[in-house]
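User: I'm new to structure prediction. If I give you an amino acid sequence, what do you actually give back? Let's try with this one:
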Amino acid sequence: MIVSDIIDDVIDILGRGTKTDAYKRLAEAVTVLSRKGRWNPLIRYVDIKAGIDGTTLTLPREVETVLAVNWNCQPLLGRSEWFQFHLNGGGQFNTGGWNWDNRGDFPTYQDILNPAYLTAICRLKSDLDTRLLVLGYNELDEVLRYQDADGVWHDGLPVDMHLTTDFPYGIPYVESTRSFFRNFTTVKPSQLTSVSAHELTEGEQVTISAITGTVPSPLTVGTSYFVGKDSDTLISLYTTREGSLSDTGKVIITDTPSSTISLKDSRIVSVQTKFTSATAHNISNGTRVEITADVIPAPFVANTTYYASKIDNNNVALHSNLSDAESNLDPIDCTDVGNLVVLNAKQTIYPSSFLSFSVNHNYVTGDAVTVSNPSGELPSPLLPNTTYYVRYLTTKRISIHNNQFDAINNENIIVLTTKGTGSSSIVKAIPSGITVGSAQQITAPSHGLNAGDFVQFLTSGTFPSTEIPPASGTFGTITQGTVYKVASPLSADTFTIKNTSDQAIDILNTGNGQIQSIIQRTFFIGFTGEWETDATNLATNQAIQLDSEGTFPTTNPVVTTATDYYIKKISDKKIELYTNTANTTKVPVATASRYRTGNEVFVTTASVHGFTTGDKVDVEGIGGTLDGVCSTVSLGGTGTGYIAGQVGLFANAAGNQCQIKLDTVSSGDPTVVSVVAGGEGFAIGNALTYVSGFSAGTSKTFTVATVTNGVNNVSNVYSQDSVAITVTSTTQFKFTGSGLNSVTPVLEPAGTVSPSPIRVVSLGDSDLDIVLKKSVTVTPYDNTLKTDDTTYIQDGMLVKLTTTGALPLPFATGTNYKIYVDSTGFFRFKTTSDIDVALLSIGSGVHTVNIDRNFTLVPMTDLAVPNHLFNNGDAVTAQEVGVLPTPFVDETIYYVRSTGDDTIALYDTSAHAIATGSTTGRIAPTTSGTGVNQIYQIVSNTKVSRVIQVIKDESDGYIDLLAMDDGRSTDLTQIGTYHPDETRPAYRRIIVPECNGTARVRFQVRTFNIKSDDDYIPLESSVALICMLRSMELFRTGNFEEAKKYEAQALSFLREEKSSMDGGANTFIQFNKNVFNRSQDVMQ
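Assistant: Good question. You get back a string of structure tokens that encode the predicted 3D arrangement of the chain. For your 1084 residues, that looks like this:
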């Protein structure tokens, strides 16, 4: 059967693939079936004559299995390869007249007796390039190995292929030498060289540019590479920093133009700058600063707040935030100097304030109080439900503090920064007791109240019951939130209460729980004329301006922005502000006397006052005890209708009230009176007018005789702030005002007159800043340039500077400087003469430090020949396959010097190649050439002692393997002839009893690959083949049970065919007469 008889069925079964696939599957099926039985079409015989190799016979390639051997017409008993190892066997070469021995498969017809050179002869020219590889051992009994043209080692020995016509007279022979070819390429340059030490460091990043010529490929201008330092003058370039450190990713140059290239490591640097003033700037750390200028130095911008750090009295740096300024971190450096630069240093000031009341507050120094504002917001920073402490200033003024110590010692007054909204109050609670009755009903220790003051009450239980006497029947209770009036009799710890209609109140019981007397006073914010701020760096007579993000406070006089005002330093925490410099240093002038004419008050000073008309002054302390408490009253005239013991309420012309008791009355005329409640705002000589309290008599006058606790009050024209004066002489001035006082001069030795500072009348809605303007210039901070990157910089290496604007002086472009990294991590410089560079200016633009080095390519000198075995001085011949690198010439001999395991250099003579200390005679390639180029060396051929296996490519024709085996002949001995399809030749060998004779061998045929429709298939049952194909396809898909069924069917078809072909032939028992040779044996 031939393939075409069944191929269509095969393709149908496969259902996929090419015809080549079908051939392959069919060949597999034939091979599997052939090994499942002794099928008649596969059984053949061959006759072979012995003698060439003694008793060893090599059988033809189609013999797969030897079934029987007949030697010289005598059947022999077969023995396996294992018989030579049998305990009863005869060893390796045991033979006998009655047996044949299986020796296995061999790749040649006969063995090599003596080590021999091998060659191969092909019948067709198309097979000249067919590979024939012999595996085995050389004459030293070493495994055969060879190195290919690329330097790779392989097992085996390639056998040279020839045509018979290659040899003279057509007689093949083998040379004792051969040409050993090696492929080579030029070693592409990867190194750059500098004339002097380059000072670059492993891993350093550089950017490339060409100075002369063109940049060699694949390098590109402007691209960054990383340095691999090969020596002080040699470097290689890498695409990554990691590669430069691990020698991976090296840039290999693919062309070699004549050029000089620049490698530049550039670092952006900046001048550290500061602002310098000609005089002390008085700016402290953390001060807020804005910059104004004709041209603001970059990168600063207008209307932006920066924060100062003080360098010294004349120099300051600015930062973007307070934290950096306080820590002196990351100052902002200028990139140009700007023009007419002014620093506007700002610090917040707060007017020194106090709490003012319209009535007596009745608080004493050290009182614990709280603040409340049920309908609005408290002035900042006051908080509700927080305890503060009082310092008594006047009967209507207090300051408050955060602790009692500060209140007692007049320290750390709470400065109010906002005016709040609504009505704010101070509240003092005094735990109190109740006494039933109509006099001194309330016991409140150290209450500080006077007759006419107001009080409220709280209780933790129930309030006492009350009645308005005498027996009015109007009953009630003390109630929370009701205002009561303090009345006599009273003492330091007790007082009597009335209602606000001056009706007496009888307390009927004590109620229960703890009652508290509440002194609650609505307050207003008053201002002293001083300002609270950090005045440590401020000085008297220093000019400032004012600024606010909101509305300015109302002041007297009115202040505005962009106006100069002048400081008078009171302490490190307090200042006063004036509108002119003269007033900042004036001291108060003592008064001598004063008097009034109409609405004009004249004040005479004890010395020249120095004021001018229009000045505003503070008049303090004149009028003696003016505004004091009435302590005694003098009587004038004769009165009638008065009753002893009564207490009446009197008032002066200003409306201030006091209570007078009629101690002694004679016939209705008071003769002795006492003051039980002196009130406030009285002056000696004030006439008193009866208001209420008893039935007024007639014709009696009451006049203030003495006052105590005299204090100055802004409501009194003789002790007044910020009054505009008219100068009448060098020692006298006048001002307009009203008031009660003598119209004749009165001595006033205790009074003072001083310039009026700027006073706040009411707060604005935002903080007020003083602005200290300081003209400055931008100067270098020191002699270093700031950088973020000092890596790879070596002290003393040469650099050049470039800029987008102007370099800082004295730097000049194109000039070399020595660079150093100082302890701060910044750069400092020296000239090449080792003189320190001192910066004179900051320049402008962006500055760059450049490590700029010029390099040229290291020329190509070597050839790459991986794993070469050349020795210095070896002769090699160049062979042009593509285009040889210039200046090499085809078929010209050169001489090798090994420059590494994988590289060589070629020289013009062997002597030059051997002289390793010199490069004389070196032939360096100037081009890379194209294609594959080779050199070859004449080397000794290899002798083979044993062939273990032959590997052959498929060929078009037969190929003969020959050996120059002098153990057999002085000529070439043919040891193998290989069919075109053979790729792994294997021939069965047997040993027969004798050297002379003929062996008839019965064998099963070896199956071969199928390659065409015309190939012969040594089986006749197509259905068996079809079943076997199906079985194998099912097996490949994992359907093993079905596969077994089809296989069994295939074998069944073949068995049936065999049975039909064998017919009735019988197989008889055999006796070997050479073994069983006893003639008397009946069985024989």
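You can read the tokens as a compact description of the fold. Here is one thing that stands out. The helical segments are 7-14, 19-34, 241-246, 322-327, 404-409, 910-914, 1022-1036, 1040-1062.
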